[in-house]
Amino acid sequence: MSAEDAKRDYSIAATPSHVTEGTRVLKQGDTFVVFDRSGDINPIGGGGQGLYHDGTRFLSGLELLVNDRQPLLLSSTVRLDNDVLTVDLTNPDMSADAGESFPSDTLHIFRSNFLWQGACYQRIRVSNYSLTSRHVTLSMRFTADFADIFEVRGTRRLRRGESSAPRTADSELILSYVGLDGARRRTKIRFETPVTWRNGTAAIDLQIERGSPVTILCTIACEVESEARAILTHEHAFSAVGQDLANAKTRHSQIDTADGLFNEWLRRSLADVHMMVTSTRCGLYPYAGVPWFNAPFGRDGIITALEVLWFYPELARGVLQFLAATQATEMIPDQDAQPGKIVHEIRGGEMAALREIPFGRYYGSVDSTPLFVVLAGEYYGRTADLTFVQSIWPNIERAMQWIDEYGDVDRDGFVEYMRQTPEGLAQQGWKDSHDSVFHADGQLAPPPIALCEVQAYVYAARRHAATLARALGMDDRSECFQRDAESLRQRFEQAYWDDELSMYVLALDGRKQPCRVRTSNAGHCLFGGIASPDRAGRVANELVGDNLYSGWGVRTLAAGEMRYNPMSYHNGSVWPHDNALIGAGLGRYGLTTGSTKILEGFHHASSFLDLHRLPELFCGFRRRAAEGPTLYPVACAPQAWAAGAAFMLLQGCLGLSIDAIHKRVTFTRARLPDFVPWVGISNLTVAGGSVDLMLEQHSLGVAVTLLKTTGDVEIVTRKG
Predict the structure, then answer these.
(1) Which of 108, 383, 531, 676 would be a feasible disulfide site paired with 127, CB 3.0-4.6 Å?
(2) pLDDT surpassing 80 at residue 720
């Protein structure tokens, strides 16, 4: 990385203060909060602790004290539906110099927190288990730095706005900040109990009788002057959270299995998808990840929607609508924008508004545009919703034009990337670290760079565009797309296959030299369908072989390659979404044995992970007996496409495809891992009908039983 690139490095600083250790996360809409396990917020704690809204930290410090002493943690967890954080605390030994003297474990302090529409609702219940009445002073200290999320990540600013002195009135504290963007941001803290304020600390005197708990309610609201939002009471807000969650559960099929741990992983994964999904003006959209990526990302949203499409197609519709509405319409070099290109990310906050970072609306990804077309085609195949496809057809056409006119930088028939602005990302595939594309000797590849998986996405996009054009009555256009797809496939096989590696090379560099390294990228070529069947089998053997498969999943880079480092972000780590696409690709070619091997690895990993939650990534060290995976220090958790991985991996194992146009559900060479004797799928909707299915593992394969059906849905099983 050059000195200039170093100045513009927007990666997350892996300092001790940023390591996500022992944190609890809640998210709702554009608001999220990262607590420590006690329910406090420590400004120098791990994982970017704080209460955030639209890219700004509205609360950087929160500390609960009992008689000026920190309570002792008993337990904490986020409920399975991800809606409430619950924490159990007790008092330490209280000596006379800390107020009234009494022994530890006398008081039980229960804290619960949930989010709704820009506010954090906190309930504290204090119970006395001593034989006598107890007088205690409960205090809560609040601080707000109004830091932009990129400041929290480690980006330095030369200037900041101004904070106002705290204002108190009765049971309310207001912390405020006017940014350089002119926006006034306020944190409004309100108690429903009389409190005494001193230097941002609320003190509450309590006389607690045995058997008569005392409850304290506190609301912490994030306010931007341009937003008009009423703050609900605890009761009404909690009811709204419950109704929102109930509505979310009606939007998709239900999955159950014979394995309790697998169910725990699936349920947490689905709860994480629900939590990351945000209601936008264009429909539902899964934000990428907490804490660092709580924003719409094009690539992440598309892949998450693909992962859950088979049982949750409504999410894909929202993603397509949002990305169509934000598709670039003009050349804006500072944003890496070109007509027809699909957005990479959209950020709020002060630094984005001032363009101190390029990511307010940024288009620097090479793969979001073909993947947009892929998702449109897959959505049509899954739903037969031709009316919706017709509504976004102009966007699909513009995306295909971008592929031909702007994506192919040097007119060699392959889609490459080369940033238009030095402020942008140097690498614009999903592995967007500066050092992720290189040659066998470790030398970084010069741009423009044509990644192997991007050609697979473009191939799939051309085929899907052909199908959609034909469905819309444009036969000539369809044939043109189909011819272009076949031409690309033939040229790809000639340029990217490396017989010695038994794999497709990572990329072609700006000199058209192949990057001859073994990477997980080649697995995406199976997902896109561009690989020939015989070569797909050879790629599969490499992917699940010892150099790439760690025992937990497929590494991003094979052990033994020059830049291999199992602790790196993209050069040897294990990413769930990467493996999900690989698993789906293996299933596409009937190589379901490989899909089950990957699923088994992640299932085992989830049993070691807090809340059974797969993070954004973990280290690529080889699996060791009786030990869990080695965590990556600044990985997001939850991360939308990590949460969706479980469902795409299961789909890959089952060889499951749904053709709504012909009202058909097909299982090709279906397999289940040994730890799952059966899987039940209920309310799987297909073109106005639905089916309930039972899949059972037998010595000769997986038997599929139709338990219930409405409408005319055909179930097909294929052995090869």
Answers:
(1) 108
(2) no
Q: Which of 119, 395, 432 minimizes the C-alpha distance to 299?
A: 432
Q: Which two tokens stand for residue 85?
A: 């954080």
**Residue indicated by tokens 């009471």:** 233
Q: Is the pLDDT of residue 5 over 70?
A: no
| Secondary structure of 583-608 as H, E, C letters | HHHHHHCCCHHHHHHHHHHHHHHHHH
Q: What separation in angstroms does the CA of 570 have from each of 26, 305, 432, 553?
A: 27, 23, 8, 14
pTM as predicted? 0.95
Q: Does residue 713 fall inside a structural domain? A: no
Q: Same domain, yes or no, for 326 and 445?
A: yes
**pLDDT band at 255; cut points 50, 70, 90:** very high
Per-residue pLDDT for 7 more than 90?
no
The upper half-sphere exposure of residue 248, i.e. CA atoms within 13 Å in the direction of its Cβ, equals 24
pLDDT at residue 295 tops 60: yes
Q: Could you give the percent of the chain with pLDDT greater than 90?
A: 91
Q: Are residues 173 and 116 in the same domain?
A: yes
Q: Give the type of residue at 133.
A: S
In this structure, are 201 and 87 located in the same domain?
Answer: yes
Are 579 and 554 in contact by the 8 Å Cβ rule? The answer is yes
Q: How many domains does the chain have?
A: 2
What CA–CA distance (Å, rounded) separates 177 from 172? Answer: 17
Core vs surface per residue 269-281: b (16+ CB within 10 A) or e? bbbbbbbbbbebe
